[in-house]
Amino acid sequence: xxxxxxxxxxxxxxxxxxxxxxxxxRSQANVDVLAGYAAGRAHFEVPQHTASRYHAxxxxxxxSAIRRRRIVRADVTPEYLQLIDCETCPVTLERLTHSTRTGxxxxxxxxxxxxxxxxxxxxxxxxRANRAKRAKNYRQVARLAHAxxxxxxxxxxxxEWARLACLMVGAENIPDAQPTLTPLLTRxxxxxxxxxxxxxxxxxxxxxxRAATRNHLIKTLNGLHPDHAQRERLRLAAERLAxxxxxxxxxxDALADDQIQNFLKSWFTSLPRESVPRLLRLASYFxxxxxxxxxxxCWSLPTSGHFIDPPMSDRAGPRQASDDxxxxxxxxxxx
Length: 335
Fold this sequence. Notes:
Blueprint: H1 7-19, H2 31-43, H3 53-67, H4 78-84, E1 106-110, E2 122-126, H5 127-133, H6 138-145, H7 158-168, H8 196-207, H9 211-222, H10 228-245, H11 258-269, H12 276-283, H13 324-331
Antiparallel strand pairs: 1-2
């Protein structure tokens, strides 16, 4: 899927910066952004809106992306950033702060670094986790999660690298990969891709605290499995999970238990193929839409999330000062 930069993208960003009265480094902006900003300043005597932190982040993402020729999809809006926001970093488990210029400040990161800024490929993590991740892919992060000695590497402990690997595996473009059968060590962020085994663990963990809910779920799940021994393993795993969850600071640490994992993997891998769609339907109540066989084309993975330069014959000449800005000013309505 070809994605070409257009002057309108830059102009619209400049217009929005003026509309929200947001300061920015003009030396880092291209001519289209500057033209849109000048037109917006001429149109708006005063800023029309006070930018929430979601609007401010949205503008910042677009400005940074255009400078690096990266694609920001139209579905990445301030409302979407609010949807994926969270109070605690799923990697460091620290409470997120805002505008403190410390490592606990929130940041929006592309999960798959070869993808665009698009829905499903974004998560909110701390700036410390973001800086540690940088351009690393899933395989590099997974190796750091297994580092011996427990030493801090690039600012994260092995346990933090392991949590980050859990967040990244669902967005990894691995053709014909084997199913992911590792413990789910952290919360799956809103709209984040995840393998079915992770979703299975997440909704099991969420349901074991109350005996009535746990028993109902086990009965439902075991209705998918014909083997009595496997049904018993799932029951024992759920009961042990309920006990361990009470004794850990972070609930997902209970899923790292070897006995629980042995039982869960045995049940999951022996599940008849015809039961998998039913498990997916059950998972849909807990975010099953996040489990898909292929990654979305809108992520623009073949271009590493960058714009493609159009053919020379299709490229427009320099913007004329008398045309587009005036048309934009006349065509905009802002209440």
